[in-house]
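task queued by scheduler; priority normal; single chain, no ligands, no partner chains; default sampling; output format set to C-alpha coordinates
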Amino acid sequence: MNPLAETIQWPSCAEIPPLAGSEIHVWATTLAPAPEQLQKTLATLSVDELARAKRFKFDQHRNRFIAGRGALRAILGRSLGASPAALRFEYQTNGKPELAGKFASAGIHFNLAHTEDLALVAVTRIGRLGVDVEGVRPIKNADELVARFFSPRENELFQKVSENEKPAAFFNLWTRKEALLKATGEGITRSLSLVEVSFLPGEPARLLAVSGDVEEAAQWSLRELSPATGFTGAIAIQARDVTVQGWKWDS
Protein backbone atom coordinates (compact mmCIF):
# COMPACT_ATOMS: atom_id res chain seq x y z
CA MET A 1 0.00 0.00 0.00
CA ASN A 2 1.14 3.55 -0.68
CA PRO A 3 2.58 4.97 2.58
CA LEU A 4 0.40 8.08 2.37
CA ALA A 5 -2.76 5.97 2.07
CA GLU A 6 -1.91 4.43 5.43
CA THR A 7 -1.74 7.86 7.10
CA ILE A 8 -5.18 9.04 5.95
CA GLN A 9 -7.12 9.36 9.20
CA TRP A 10 -10.66 9.36 7.86
CA PRO A 11 -12.63 6.10 7.69
CA SER A 12 -13.17 4.24 4.44
CA CYS A 13 -16.69 4.07 3.04
CA ALA A 14 -17.66 1.31 0.62
CA GLU A 15 -20.55 3.26 -0.93
CA ILE A 16 -21.16 6.95 -1.60
CA PRO A 17 -23.59 8.03 1.16
CA PRO A 18 -26.69 10.04 0.22
CA LEU A 19 -25.87 13.76 0.19
CA ALA A 20 -28.32 15.70 2.39
CA GLY A 21 -29.06 19.33 1.63
CA SER A 22 -26.99 20.73 4.51
CA GLU A 23 -24.03 18.36 4.15
CA ILE A 24 -20.57 18.63 2.67
CA HIS A 25 -18.77 15.37 1.94
CA VAL A 26 -14.98 15.46 1.68
CA TRP A 27 -13.00 12.54 0.28
CA ALA A 28 -9.25 12.08 0.85
CA THR A 29 -7.26 9.98 -1.61
CA THR A 30 -3.69 9.26 -2.61
CA LEU A 31 -2.31 10.60 -5.88
CA ALA A 32 0.17 7.73 -6.13
CA PRO A 33 -2.02 4.73 -6.98
CA ALA A 34 -0.77 1.41 -8.27
CA PRO A 35 0.22 1.43 -11.99
CA GLU A 36 -2.70 -0.80 -12.98
CA GLN A 37 -5.15 1.58 -11.28
CA LEU A 38 -3.59 4.54 -13.06
CA GLN A 39 -4.12 2.83 -16.42
CA LYS A 40 -7.79 2.21 -15.62
CA THR A 41 -8.15 5.86 -14.63
CA LEU A 42 -6.80 7.06 -18.00
CA ALA A 43 -9.80 5.50 -19.74
CA THR A 44 -12.19 7.79 -17.81
CA LEU A 45 -10.54 11.10 -18.74
CA SER A 46 -11.71 13.43 -21.48
CA VAL A 47 -9.69 14.42 -24.53
CA ASP A 48 -8.76 17.79 -23.04
CA GLU A 49 -7.72 16.17 -19.74
CA LEU A 50 -5.49 13.71 -21.59
CA ALA A 51 -3.96 16.60 -23.50
CA ARG A 52 -3.26 18.44 -20.24
CA ALA A 53 -1.69 15.31 -18.77
CA LYS A 54 0.71 15.02 -21.73
CA ARG A 55 1.98 18.56 -21.16
CA PHE A 56 3.52 17.68 -17.78
CA LYS A 57 7.29 17.33 -18.05
CA PHE A 58 7.73 14.88 -15.17
CA ASP A 59 5.97 11.53 -14.77
CA GLN A 60 5.23 12.16 -11.09
CA HIS A 61 3.33 15.38 -11.83
CA ARG A 62 1.54 13.79 -14.78
CA ASN A 63 0.46 10.80 -12.68
CA ARG A 64 -0.77 13.04 -9.86
CA PHE A 65 -2.93 14.98 -12.31
CA ILE A 66 -4.38 11.79 -13.79
CA ALA A 67 -5.09 10.30 -10.35
CA GLY A 68 -6.71 13.51 -9.09
CA ARG A 69 -9.01 13.96 -12.06
CA GLY A 70 -9.82 10.26 -12.02
CA ALA A 71 -10.81 10.37 -8.34
CA LEU A 72 -12.94 13.47 -8.97
CA ARG A 73 -14.74 11.76 -11.86
CA ALA A 74 -15.24 8.53 -9.90
CA ILE A 75 -16.70 10.28 -6.86
CA LEU A 76 -18.98 12.55 -8.90
CA GLY A 77 -20.01 9.64 -11.10
CA ARG A 78 -21.04 7.56 -8.07
CA SER A 79 -22.93 10.55 -6.63
CA LEU A 80 -24.81 11.08 -9.92
CA GLY A 81 -25.29 7.42 -10.85
CA ALA A 82 -23.29 7.99 -14.03
CA SER A 83 -20.16 6.62 -15.65
CA PRO A 84 -17.08 8.71 -14.71
CA ALA A 85 -16.17 8.95 -18.40
CA ALA A 86 -19.61 10.39 -19.24
CA LEU A 87 -19.15 13.51 -17.12
CA ARG A 88 -18.54 16.81 -18.86
CA PHE A 89 -17.03 19.94 -17.35
CA GLU A 90 -16.93 23.60 -18.22
CA TYR A 91 -14.39 25.99 -16.75
CA GLN A 92 -14.70 29.43 -15.18
CA THR A 93 -12.23 32.15 -16.10
CA ASN A 94 -10.00 31.11 -13.18
CA GLY A 95 -9.97 27.49 -14.37
CA LYS A 96 -12.36 26.15 -11.72
CA PRO A 97 -14.44 23.29 -13.23
CA GLU A 98 -18.22 22.90 -13.01
CA LEU A 99 -20.49 20.15 -14.26
CA ALA A 100 -21.78 20.77 -17.78
CA GLY A 101 -24.20 19.26 -20.27
CA LYS A 102 -26.97 17.07 -18.87
CA PHE A 103 -25.30 17.12 -15.44
CA ALA A 104 -25.29 20.92 -15.11
CA SER A 105 -28.75 20.90 -13.53
CA ALA A 106 -27.96 18.11 -11.04
CA GLY A 107 -27.39 20.59 -8.21
CA ILE A 108 -23.96 19.19 -7.33
CA HIS A 109 -21.14 21.56 -6.43
CA PHE A 110 -17.57 20.38 -5.93
CA ASN A 111 -13.98 21.44 -5.49
CA LEU A 112 -10.66 19.62 -5.76
CA ALA A 113 -7.45 20.39 -3.85
CA HIS A 114 -4.13 18.58 -3.83
CA THR A 115 -0.65 18.78 -2.38
CA GLU A 116 2.17 16.30 -2.83
CA ASP A 117 0.49 12.85 -3.09
CA LEU A 118 -2.73 13.83 -1.26
CA ALA A 119 -5.96 15.10 -2.80
CA LEU A 120 -9.28 16.21 -1.32
CA VAL A 121 -12.56 16.18 -3.24
CA ALA A 122 -15.39 18.15 -1.61
CA VAL A 123 -19.00 17.67 -2.79
CA THR A 124 -22.21 19.40 -1.69
CA ARG A 125 -25.68 20.51 -2.78
CA ILE A 126 -25.54 23.75 -0.79
CA GLY A 127 -23.64 25.96 -3.22
CA ARG A 128 -20.18 26.86 -4.44
CA LEU A 129 -17.45 25.89 -2.02
CA GLY A 130 -13.69 25.92 -1.71
CA VAL A 131 -11.31 23.37 -0.24
CA ASP A 132 -7.57 23.48 0.29
CA VAL A 133 -4.91 21.22 1.82
CA GLU A 134 -1.18 21.52 2.54
CA GLY A 135 1.55 19.49 4.15
CA VAL A 136 2.66 21.18 7.37
CA ARG A 137 6.37 21.97 7.19
CA PRO A 138 8.77 24.73 8.29
CA ILE A 139 8.75 27.81 6.06
CA LYS A 140 12.06 29.64 6.09
CA ASN A 141 10.61 33.11 5.54
CA ALA A 142 7.21 32.63 7.24
CA ASP A 143 7.51 35.80 9.36
CA GLU A 144 8.26 37.89 6.27
CA LEU A 145 5.42 36.38 4.26
CA VAL A 146 2.86 36.96 7.00
CA ALA A 147 4.03 40.54 7.56
CA ARG A 148 3.92 41.29 3.83
CA PHE A 149 0.73 39.60 2.67
CA PHE A 150 -1.58 39.07 5.65
CA SER A 151 -3.51 41.56 7.77
CA PRO A 152 -1.86 43.65 10.52
CA ARG A 153 -3.90 41.81 13.15
CA GLU A 154 -2.85 38.41 11.82
CA ASN A 155 0.77 39.50 11.65
CA GLU A 156 0.73 40.74 15.23
CA LEU A 157 -0.68 37.45 16.49
CA PHE A 158 1.63 35.36 14.33
CA GLN A 159 4.76 37.01 15.70
CA LYS A 160 3.72 35.89 19.19
CA VAL A 161 3.42 32.22 18.21
CA SER A 162 6.25 29.97 19.42
CA GLU A 163 8.72 28.82 16.76
CA ASN A 164 7.68 25.18 16.98
CA GLU A 165 4.02 26.11 16.41
CA LYS A 166 4.60 28.53 13.54
CA PRO A 167 4.41 25.90 10.75
CA ALA A 168 0.93 24.84 11.88
CA ALA A 169 -0.16 28.45 12.36
CA PHE A 170 1.13 29.47 8.92
CA PHE A 171 -0.65 26.68 7.08
CA ASN A 172 -3.84 27.27 9.05
CA LEU A 173 -3.71 30.83 7.73
CA TRP A 174 -2.89 29.78 4.20
CA THR A 175 -5.40 26.94 3.74
CA ARG A 176 -8.30 28.81 5.36
CA LYS A 177 -7.79 31.88 3.18
CA GLU A 178 -7.25 29.81 0.04
CA ALA A 179 -10.41 27.77 0.69
CA LEU A 180 -12.44 30.95 1.04
CA LEU A 181 -10.99 32.57 -2.06
CA LYS A 182 -11.56 29.39 -4.08
CA ALA A 183 -15.19 29.40 -2.93
CA THR A 184 -15.65 32.95 -4.23
CA GLY A 185 -13.95 32.02 -7.50
CA GLU A 186 -11.22 34.58 -7.04
CA GLY A 187 -8.41 32.26 -5.98
CA ILE A 188 -5.24 33.30 -4.24
CA THR A 189 -4.67 36.18 -6.66
CA ARG A 190 -6.97 38.31 -4.50
CA SER A 191 -5.10 40.12 -1.74
CA LEU A 192 -4.69 37.77 1.20
CA SER A 193 -5.06 40.68 3.60
CA LEU A 194 -8.70 41.30 2.62
CA VAL A 195 -9.95 38.25 4.49
CA GLU A 196 -9.16 37.62 8.15
CA VAL A 197 -9.37 34.19 9.74
CA SER A 198 -8.62 32.51 13.05
CA PHE A 199 -5.43 30.45 12.84
CA LEU A 200 -3.78 29.88 16.21
CA PRO A 201 -3.09 26.17 16.89
CA GLY A 202 -6.10 24.64 18.65
CA GLU A 203 -8.36 27.59 17.77
CA PRO A 204 -11.56 26.68 15.87
CA ALA A 205 -11.55 27.80 12.23
CA ARG A 206 -13.62 30.96 11.71
CA LEU A 207 -13.87 33.69 9.12
CA LEU A 208 -13.56 36.92 11.10
CA ALA A 209 -13.89 39.65 8.49
CA VAL A 210 -14.04 40.29 4.74
CA SER A 211 -12.53 43.66 3.85
CA GLY A 212 -13.24 44.63 7.47
CA ASP A 213 -16.90 43.56 7.27
CA VAL A 214 -17.75 41.18 10.13
CA GLU A 215 -21.39 40.85 9.02
CA GLU A 216 -20.36 39.45 5.65
CA ALA A 217 -17.98 37.07 7.43
CA ALA A 218 -20.86 35.80 9.59
CA GLN A 219 -22.59 34.46 6.47
CA TRP A 220 -19.80 31.93 5.92
CA SER A 221 -18.83 28.58 7.39
CA LEU A 222 -15.12 27.81 7.64
CA ARG A 223 -13.99 24.42 8.92
CA GLU A 224 -10.59 22.88 9.60
CA LEU A 225 -9.80 19.54 7.95
CA SER A 226 -7.27 17.00 9.26
CA PRO A 227 -7.29 14.30 6.58
CA ALA A 228 -3.88 12.71 7.15
CA THR A 229 -0.91 12.80 9.47
CA GLY A 230 1.21 15.87 8.72
CA PHE A 231 -1.44 17.63 6.62
CA THR A 232 -3.96 20.36 7.36
CA GLY A 233 -6.78 21.74 5.27
CA ALA A 234 -9.90 23.87 5.28
CA ILE A 235 -13.27 24.10 3.64
CA ALA A 236 -15.33 27.28 3.11
CA ILE A 237 -18.88 27.88 1.95
CA GLN A 238 -21.29 30.81 2.10
CA ALA A 239 -23.85 29.11 4.35
CA ARG A 240 -24.47 28.51 8.02
CA ASP A 241 -25.25 25.35 9.99
CA VAL A 242 -23.50 22.95 7.63
CA THR A 243 -22.34 19.43 8.44
CA VAL A 244 -18.93 18.32 7.14
CA GLN A 245 -18.10 14.62 6.91
CA GLY A 246 -14.76 13.18 5.77
CA TRP A 247 -13.97 9.77 4.28
CA LYS A 248 -11.05 7.97 2.70
CA TRP A 249 -11.57 7.20 -0.98
CA ASP A 250 -10.42 3.67 -1.84
CA SER A 251 -10.27 3.61 -5.62
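post-processing summary
- The chain is about 30% helix and 25% strand.
- Residues 3-130+244-248 form a domain with the Ribosomal Protein L22; Chain A fold (CATH 3.90.470.20).
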